[in-house]
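Consider the following assembly input.
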Amino acid sequence: MTLLALEGVDVFYGDLQATFGVDLHVEEGEAVALIGANGAGKSTLLRAMIGLTPARRGTVTFDGENITRQRCDLVARRGVAIVPEGRRLFASLTVEENLLMGAARARPGPWTLDSVFDLFPAMRDFRHHNAAELSGGQQQMVAVGRALLTNPRLLLCDELSLGLAPKVVGEIYSCFAGIREKGVSIILVEQDIARARSASNRLYCLLKGRVTLEGASDAVSLDDISHAYFGDRRQ
Amino acid sequence: MSYVEAILNGLMVGGLYGLFGLGLALAFGIMRIVNIAHGEFVVLAAYLGVTLLAVTPLPLPVVVVVVAAAAFALGWALQATMLNRLLGPNPVPAMVVTMGLSIVLRNVLVELYGADIQSIDIGPLQNMGIGFAGLSIGLLPILIFIISVILFIGVNLLLTRTTIGRAFRAAADDHEILETLGFNRRRIYNAALGLAVALSAVAGLLLAMRSSFTPFSGVERLLIAFEVVIIGGLGSLRGCFLGGLFLGVVQVLGLKLYPNAGPLFGHLAFFIVLLVRQSNLGLFLAWGRK
């Protein structure tokens, strides 16, 4: 069953058009990767999905309901959560307080403070630290945990690996299995193409605001991806 | 009145100054709104108190609670009907609106109550005092000081222990992310301005019990609030409280030295704090100690 569907989505920042007629869908329980160069419109699409920058044209449908122009907090309470680019923790709150903010308006579901601590056991050690004092990897764990605590049906992950050491990125991604086990669908924006392919069922490649490739992650060739990514025509 | 008494009295009025600053700092910290009408709300609360005491049989503590509740509702309504329409990176529209509101409020007060000096008569409590170690301190200032300390502690607990309080701090950090967690940002803002105005209203009512006021006193109160916030530092409860105490002590001591000085010494102290902050004097002193 289709959980999220975008049809002909045009998103604008002021007069600047960032995406052009994007069609995209995510099935229940699926993990979908969005890849593309900087400025291709990946983060913009995530913002349109959760209602932070609503699409000007086209429709966004979540679980059969049109949410194109719904307020962000209402979309969130329907079950969409985001791990934003750059983590964006509440800097003046402690780790635990950050997590509590995620839980405060949560839907009923499997994620609790304890189950999130079980997902990232290291987080118990710095739960009373200020969010601003953490390393990038620790911050990313908190950002994922905070989003999960809303008990989402769809989790949007924006560049989890940004600025992190490869080993730390591996640790963060290893939690995906545990998240998908609980029936959460995932949309993953990622610059690291190998990582994106291995962590997803299907992928979309964006180029300058348009979808240039769509396919099963293990079926598309690196050659196809490279052409879709850079936009050069095959001879 | 000895100097020790002057300092104690300064501390006690300083607690109220701290509350003025706290109301302003909450609105600025959470919504980035500089509420120019802050002083007028403080004075409005005093007038509301006077009226309630005159026309209803309610006892004083009940009047304080009623005024606080009315101020909360007023702050909520102001945010919901006007200021929420002006959210955005530019703080000027909200400043202009609250400035206009301050002019309207001031003139409505003159129209209703006239421009005469008013004060709140609280009966025998006004003249009761406590004597110890050769000092005599009024009972009323002590009570007022205790109330302001309790309010500061209460706000601290609210900000750290409750969901709405944590949401206030989170909204100050990153309001977009707060929305993605399912919080209605506007409603958080309504509650925040309600709290800010309620705190200042209580402080304004308490100050009216120990000094007089006119419809034009708002500007003076606003100035105190600005000075407290700038001395104490934005976004710090303790800073607001200490900034208020500092300003209160300087002002009362100054009045003792020169009874005609009015608020001059408070403003001078503020000016000096600004100068010291701007110059590298602090750095120079630290270097000298090495």
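The radius of gyration of chain A is 17 Å. Ask yourself how this observation constrains the way the partners meet.
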